[in-house]
Amino acid sequence: MEVLNLIIERNIKEKGGFNYHWGCDGLKISHVCFADDLMLFSQADECSVRILKESLEDFSGVSGLIPNLNKSTIYFGNVNNHLQHLIKGLLPFKVGVLPVRYLGIPLLSKRLYSKDCSVLIDKVRKKLNDWKNKFLSFDGRLQLIRHFNLYDIWCPLSPLCSFITVRDIHRPGLTTRSTVNEIVVNGGWSWPVEWQNKFPSLFNLNVPSLVDGKRDVLMWKSREEKHMPFCTSEVYKDLCVHRQSVQWAKVMWFSQSIPRHAFILWLAYQVRLLTQDRLDRWEVRSDLLCPFCQLQMDSHYHLFFECDYPSEVWDCLKGLGMLNDAPPNRKGCVDFLAKQHMGRSFRSIIQRLVLAAMFYFIWQERNLRLFQDKYRTVEELCKVIEKL
């Protein structure tokens, strides 16, 4: 949705005549995105609605996404019929009635009270009461058990309720909560007699070794087919997709690293920062220029460290970070450190901390200039990094 944000912002700025909704004028809010939903706000005038419509059309042109008319609704507040007719001609959405609810909650400008959420609360209570009080058939009970019980896979046929019906379980006096211990007597099986012909495979199972007075222990079978006590960390390791480790990982991730610095360095190395050259692929703006040099669009290669401002930051701090021999470019400096011995030495830690800080604060300075019109000189930025 970042592209849509840029398109709406550009059209409002370039076309002029857009009037914000009275409740959104102070913060200049024209739209709100939440999950897969989009809400547009404006005053009820033809010019404002036309700008929103053209923004949606521009977005559809670059993304291929088109608003679903059957799921789109327009709401009017104190708007005369003639103006409503004109606006519906521009945006042929179905007309809704205020107040409107979203996800069961009324959209109000005032504080919400319990009575405002009563419909949602009633729905939740109704569902809970259904599960508690509704009389389920045997098949229904079995389905409920399958979804909400944790089974102990104690034999190859487990869980037994996958082929033994609830009726067959209850006939001999057992329940769905019966344990293996109840059907093992003097070291042998004590299955119900009527199950012998119906479920003969049960009588051929090996009798497990049970210890009186000792509780069951939850075990985990690892990828290497080893049984071990259940441990969250071991389960996580087994469930993770194992890939070959990369040399540059320790440049970013180490015990003394600053997480936000390391994260920006990782994004930059993976060419995943939202630089202007990536937005240009959508063809939403033609006036994108690097906030440092104003000569070309910024990119990962330009920001780290081809542009004059980042290059001066590099020259100022490479001595502090003992990076004099490192190539002054995004990938080269990381690969240079990756080939070094990265232990717990003071030199190794300082090198990685300074490098990540340079990437982080150059990206921060870029965003401050673009979005907040704030500027720091090279000397000021270097002093901020040196004080860390």
Describe this structure in words.
There is one protein chain. With 388 residues, the chain is mainly alpha-helical. Among the domains are: 2-98, no CATH class; 249-386, no CATH class. It is built from 16 helices and 10 strands. It has helices at 2-15, 46-63, 81-90, 118-133, 138-148, 166-170, 195-198, 232-239, 249-252, 259-269, 276-280, 300-306, 308-317, 330-338, 346-371, 378-386; strands at 31-34, 37-40, 73-74, 94-95, 101-102, 105-106, 184-185, 188-189, 219-221, 227-229. It has a two-stranded antiparallel sheet with strand order 1-2. A two-stranded parallel sheet has the order 3-4. A hairpin with a 2-residue loop joins β1 (31-34) and β2 (37-40). α2 (46-63) packs parallel to α3 and α10 packs across α15 (346-371). The model has no long low-confidence stretch (mean pLDDT 85).
Helix and strand arrangement:
Layout: H1 2-15, E1 31-34, E2 37-40, H2 46-63, E3 73-74, H3 81-90, E4 94-95, E5 101-102, E6 105-106, H4 118-133, H5 138-148, H6 166-170, E7 184-185, E8 188-189, H7 195-198, E9 219-221, E10 227-229, H8 232-239, H9 249-252, H10 259-269, H11 276-280, H12 300-306, H13 308-317, H14 330-338, H15 346-371, H16 378-386
Parallel strand pairs: 3-4
Antiparallel strand pairs: 1-2, 5-6, 7-8, 9-10
